[in-house]
């Protein structure tokens, strides 16, 4: 029973705990900090069940749960983990209590709202890594953006509004192109099979060729490259890191930037193998430029 519900609990425990913060006395910020630390620690302890019960010989998604959400469009609440997402889930749940502790006294203004944003960021990150439905993945991908925007824009440094807007706009532009590519994939799959579905596994069996594959791959890759971030799409990151509060910087460096690489591995490689082979030299070039550019700046 626990195996089928554990991922749901991992994602939605922080969501349920966030509004509970506002039931605590506003004049006692220590209670909000302690509550958030307890919830993030409990989430980490719960995630250890995945590590100890994961079967590395099984390549199918494990601890999976699926339920219809918008059945007319083939959209479902589908979650599961494999060897890639398992480690990222554990990384997220491990880092969040450390982020709370690291910023224990860094924020004294609107402490309850600040910690609510931390919990919602954790939920969004976990949702991205466990989603087995493309629409659900996109919802979590975008949902994570909102509390992170407020963490930077409200509790950041002197140029926090500029940094938050830059972070938001960069991510939003890439996300909209990814959404267009997701919808194109779904329509193409429907034309080929007569079935509406956003299931991640089912979509990997749909093959695009030629220019459609290249354009769809570029749309996904742009969203993921911004998150990595790949040069020259990196300029939002220094501002976000400098202006973000302590916990925000920890989450950015420790987990959020991993979302881009995860997207490349989860979607670009299996969905668009031909386009990836074509684009590999270009991405290798950008990687080398990024290394040399970073070294020169340092």
Describe the structure concisely:
The chain has helices at 2-20, 29-53, 83-102, 111-130, 134-143, 145-155, 160-193, 200-203, 210-227, 236-243, 246-256, 258-271, 273-297; strands at 62-70, 75-81.
Keyphrases for this structure?
298 residues; mainly alpha; 73% helix
Q: How large is the share of residues in beta strands? A: 5-15%
Strand neighbour order, sheet with most strands: 1-2
Coarse structural class: mainly alpha
Unreliable stretches covering 5 or more consecutive residues = none
Q: Can you give the mean pLDDT?
A: 88
Task: Characterize the biggest β-sheet.
Answer: 2 strands, antiparallel
The rounded distance between the terminal residues' Cα atoms is 51 Å
Fraction of residues in H or I helices: over 70%
Shape: globular
Notes on the structure:
This protein is 73% helix and 5% strand. It contains 13 helices and two strands. Strands 1-2 form a two-stranded antiparallel ribbon. The protein is globular and about 60 Å long. The mean pLDDT is 88.
Write the layout of secondary structure elements.
Elements: H1 2-20, H2 29-53, E1 62-70, E2 75-81, H3 83-102, H4 111-130, H5 134-143, H6 145-155, H7 160-193, H8 200-203, H9 210-227, H10 236-243, H11 246-256, H12 258-271, H13 273-297
Antiparallel strand pairs: 1-2
Helix pairs in contact: 1-2, 1-4, 2-3, 2-4, 3-4, 3-11, 4-5, 4-6, 5-7, 6-7, 7-9, 7-10, 9-12, 9-13
């Amino acid at each position: 029973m626990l195996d089928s519900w554990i991922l749901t609990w991992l994602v939605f425990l922080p969501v349920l705990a966030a509004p509970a913060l506002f039931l605590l006395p506003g004049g006692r910020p220590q209670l909000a900090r302690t509550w958030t630390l307890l919830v993030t620690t409990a989430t980490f302890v719960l995630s250890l069940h995945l590590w100890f019960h994961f079967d590395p010989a099984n390549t199918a998604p494990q601890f999976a749960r699926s339920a219809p959400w918008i059945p007319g469009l083939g959209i479902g609440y589908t979650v599961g983990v494999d060897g890639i997402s398992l480690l990222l889930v554990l990384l997220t749940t491990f880092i969040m209590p450390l982020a709370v502790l690291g910023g224990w006294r860094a924020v004294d203004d609107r402490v309850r709202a600040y910690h609510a944003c931390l919990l919602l960021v954790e939920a969004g990150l976990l949702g991205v890594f466990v989603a087995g439905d493309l629409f659900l993945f996109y919802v979590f991908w975008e949902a994570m953006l909102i509390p992170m925007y407020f963490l930077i824009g409200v509790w950041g440094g002197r140029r926090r509004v500029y940094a938050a807007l830059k972070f938001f706009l960069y991510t939003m532009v890439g996300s909209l192109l990814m959404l267009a590519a997701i919808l194109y994939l779904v329509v193409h799959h429907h034309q080929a099979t007569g079935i509406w579905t956003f299931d991640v596994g089912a979509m990997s069996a749909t093959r695009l060729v030629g220019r459609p594959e290249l354009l769809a791959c570029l749309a996904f890759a742009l969203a993921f490259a911004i998150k990595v971030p790949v040069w020259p799409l990196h300029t939002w990151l220094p501002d976000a890191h400098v202006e973000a509060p302590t916990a925000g910087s920890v989450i950015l460096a420790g987990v959020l930037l991993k979302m881009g690489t995860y997207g490349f591995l989860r979607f670009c490689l299996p969905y668009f193998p031909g386009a990836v082979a074509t684009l590999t030299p270009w991405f290798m070039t950008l990687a080398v430029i990024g290394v040399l550019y970073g070294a020169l700046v340092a």
